Every structure is written in structure tokens, then in C-alpha cells.
Amino acid sequence: MSMFLRISRNRRGKNVYEYAQIAERYRENGKQKTRVLEYLGPVRDESDMKRYRKDLLLASEKQSIRMIAPEDFSLMPSMEFGVVYASMAIMNDSGILRILKKNAGVYVHILIFMIIARLLEPSSDLSLINLSGKMYYPWSRIVMNDDNIYRALDKLISARDDIEIELFKALKPDTTFVHYDLTSSYFEGREDNDLVLFGYSRDRKRGKEQIVIGLVMADGIPIHHEVWPGNTIDPKTLEPTISVLKERFHIKNVIFIADRAFGRSKSLDLLDQNLYITAAYRWDLPYRNALMNTDFSDGRIMDDLA
């Protein structure tokens, strides 16, 4: 069946009048027939014909819409896009997107996707692959598999120093106070890696090999991280970390904030070259002696130290 614009003519006396119709050709019993679907009106000039052609187009479009019964519908799982869109906007406004594009090469979209996945569902690499089928990411046709994930991470770690410095310059955090702390991450099974060793487990996982991770934050923003061998004790990380802050980030005057794990004599000698805030056990002699010799007086503190 096909629709067309049909013009019929009627004679009245000496005058001939034209009328527009929407007609349809169809076959019945092997014979082709025509039927009128709609009467449009008189044709007086070309503007009428132009209007009727539009009417024909609309009628043709309506005819092409097939009525679908409810049972013909099937529901498909929705895909996450809100978090993806918001994350992309934040990364673009903050400069992170530009920095990753500059340093990550062809793996930039995999790294961006991994960042978004950490915000949405932080989990394993396998979960990341599964999540890629549930998230709508229209900026790139990502092929998410183990090989691409690890290649992207290799690219990221090789560009880590440059990325940290560029982010630091872009975000401009207040470095009056710098917070520093360590954590550990343990491994199941055995790992053939110089960093994966037995050491003090902050996860209370005895008998598990681990790595130690140091994080520096300024103004609530992480500006530097370092991965240490699993048997590294807290004070040994202090000097190289302060060195990085001064040499790489050019942070000269800083109040260094750390917990009591750094309160050992070698750490104190290093911290005494800077301003710092830390905690101490009351029986820790270096701290107690230092406090007893200060000019300020607080009875509660002095009684507790005595």
C-alpha cells in the first residue's frame, strides 16, 4: 500500500474546481484499487498545494507507526550515566582530563573509566570489566580486559610524577598544613615482587605479605603518594617524603602533621628542622623531656607527664 496526493476536479457551469485528497492504492482479489483516506480541501493556489503536501507527509509518517502490544515490549537493564557525566564534568573543570590526555596517550579513556568506577563501585579488576557493560560511556568505545587495564596502569605509573606535579599546579591547594600517613595492603598467595614483603600489618592480617602506601594531603587534596616495601617502618619514609615535598613541589615552609608512629628520635631530629604537629605516648622520653622544658604551663599536662 502506498499513499499519494490526489487532485479531483468538479465542473460547475463554466468553472472547474480542484480538491485535494489523500488517497491510497491497494490490491484486492488480484486487482489494484484506490480509496480516499482523507479530504483535504480546495486547491486555489500553490500555497494550498504546499500545505497539502505537508499533510500527506504527516499522514505517511503516522501510517508507518506500528501499534505495539504491551506483550511485545521487553525491559532492558538501565545503564549508569549520571555519575559518568558528573565525573567527566568535574575532571574537565579541574584540569584532570587535560592532564590525563597529555600523559596517558591511547589509554586515557580506560584510565578515566577506572576513576569513575572507583567512585561508583570500588572493587577488583574483574568487577571493573563487568561494570563496563553497565555504564554508558559515549566518549569512546572502550575495550575493557585485563591486558588493557594493566597496560593503562603501566602508562599511569610511568607518568605519575608529571601527573602529580601538574595536578598540584592546577588545583593550587593550600600547603600551610600537610598531612601524612601510611597504610598497608595485603596479598593473598605469594607474589614475586621486591615490594611485596612481610611486615607490620595495619590490617591485622598476620602471615600475609603486603606493601606499604604513603599518602600526602594538602587542603584536603591528595598531592603525592609512594609505595614502599612491605617491611618498611613508618619513620623511614619520613625523610624521603619531606625531600619530595621540598624538591618536587617546592614546598618550603610547611607544618607537617603525622601520628605518633613517627615519634622516634631520628624522626624527631628531622621534624625539628620543620614545624610539625604529632601525637606521643606519655611515657615517650623525647617528647616528655621536650615538653617539660617548654615555657608554657598547663597543669594537667605537667601532672600527667610527671
From TrEMBL:
InterPro entries: IS1634_transpos
Name of the protein in its database record: Transposase IS4 family protein
